[in-house]
Amino acid sequence: MGHGGKKSAQITWSEVEADAAGECACAHVDAIWRLRQVFEPELVEKGMEELFRDEEMPLVTTLAHMELHGLAVDTGTLHEMAAVMATDIANLEEDVYKSVGHEFNIGSPQQLSQILFEEIGLPKTRRLKTGAFATDKDSLDALRGVHPIVDLIFEYRELAKLKSTYLDPLPSLVNARTGRIHTEYNQAGAATGRLSSHNPNVQNIPVRGEAGARVRRAFVGRDNGPDPQLLSADYSQIELRIMAHITGDPGLVSAFENDEDIHAATASEVFGVPIDEVSPEMRRRAKVFNFGVLYGLSEYGLSVKEKIPREDAATFIRTYFEKYPGIQEYVSETVSSVRMNGYVQTLFGRRRYIPEIHSGNFNVRNAAERAAINMPVQGTAADIIKIAMNGLDERLTSNGMRSWMILQVHDELIFECPGEELEDVRKLCLDIMPASLEMKVPLKIDTKVGRNWGEMQYGEAVDLAAYG
């Protein structure tokens, strides 16, 4: 609600006079009712009426409960962490300066480009319109290990971003009355159906690494009973399990049915060695294959990231598809389907239209193909967890429990529980979360417990951004 037409003079709903707020609310309701007459027939025509009625509308209440409960935050810890991180950032700055012999503005892409590519002489990245060479994450990623300054830049950027994005602003976002942060969820913002969060975005705090864990330690269990704990329940490798279900690929299905280490099993197939002889490096690369195929893994991206010849990358990818022919069939059929129909959809009927698939620009068309391959899998995962969230919210409420579902981070749910309810909530998760969709392979749930979010231990990760 603006005032005087100036953005700087905007006021919140709590400051609007009751009569004016009522008039505006009534106008919104009238507009929504008229829009329903337009959109409802289209939902029916496209087969998404059930998705809307049974999944998305109940989710409005579920998300409202989560936003109202909010997240308990230890502001004292936040201030302490901010001070420690400021020192760490200053030390990293000094290390960067020492590595080049003088000071410069690390935050200036122009100056950083001059230092890296002219002064130090690192292999040049793509040239920008400004004349400087690119210093973004993807561009510098291929230069890791070439010179110590590159890793220092990555460390510096991570800490600076965490401090400016979370440690500094979070205390001001704590509600004075509740003592909690009330993030806002957007259930219609992502084309795949995923939820996003903002004000603040709590889904982007790094899961792995000490810096991210520091921020997470400030989110604590509090308020809803004796011995408060946080419980995490997440779907283990849900996207790969959905891929196994959609493709019916015998190798993938068998590995999940036998509860094998899927990445070790893939390495055994691709590298042609017994599973007990798979090395950590083989397993790591197999993990790149398994997740990379969902993001349009290319031989060029693999060769650059893994620092291997392009011919070797092509061989690895070809062997992978030979061992998992169901996946190759899914990829080719999905690309053909989106070219013909203009959209892809999840197993629940959620559609994403991808008109860019007919672009004359190769890069745009290639990105559209990757989006088409990814959406049915990631979107189905989003549908599955939304259905589970609705079921869990209903059971927590109907059972009169004091535990709250407080946070969703894509494949993971976080609950705040009195100690005495911890096992009951865990059992609810293990009962409700796998039941969202009957699949050819089991949906596996992992749980973790901690007095704060940072205590929970998370497994390894692979960054797929540079593999496209």
What does this structure look like?
The chain has helices at residues 18-45, 49-69, 75-100, 109-119, 137-141, 148-167, 170-173, 210-216, 238-247, 250-257, 262-271, 280-292, 299-306, 310-323, 325-341, 362-398, 422-432; strands spanning 71-72, 180-181, 184-186, 196-198, 229-235, 343-345, 351-353, 404-409, 412-417, 445-450. The protein starts with 17 loop residues before the first helix and ends in an 18-residue tail after the last strand. 53% of the residues lie in helices and 9% in strands. α11 (262-271) crosses α12 and α13 (299-306) crosses α14. The longest helix is centred in the C-terminal third of the chain and has 37 residues, at 362-398. The protein is built from 17 helices and 10 strands. It has a 4-stranded antiparallel sheet with strand order 8-9-5-10. A two-stranded antiparallel sheet has the order 1-2. A two-stranded antiparallel sheet has the order 3-4. By secondary structure, the chain is α+β, with helices and mostly antiparallel strands. It has 2 domains: 79-168, Taq DNA Polymerase, Chain T, domain 4; 184-468, 5' to 3' exonuclease, C-terminal subdomain (DNA polymerase, domain 1), CATH 1.10.150.
String of helices and strands: HHEHHHHHEEEHEHHHHHHHEEHEEHE
| Largest sheet composition | 4 strands, antiparallel
CATH class of the largest domain: Mainly Alpha
Q: CATH H level of the largest domain: which superfamily?
A: 5' to 3' exonuclease, C-terminal subdomain
Report the principal-axis shape: globular
Q: Would you identify the CATH architecture of the largest domain?
A: Orthogonal Bundle
Helix count from the secondary structure assignment:
17
Tell me the Rg in angstroms. 25 Å
| Rounded average pLDDT | 90
CATH-assigned fold name of the largest domain:
DNA polymerase, domain 1
What is the percentage of strand-forming residues? Answer: 5-15%
Strands across the major sheet, in which order? Answer: 8-9-5-10
* Number of separate domains: 2
* SS elements, strand count: 10
Instruction: Quote the distance from N terminus to C terminus.
Output: 42 Å
What percent of the residues sit in helical stretches (DSSP H or I)? 40-55%
Structural class: alpha+beta
Q: Regions with pLDDT < 50 over 5+ consecutive residues?
A: 1-6, 459-468
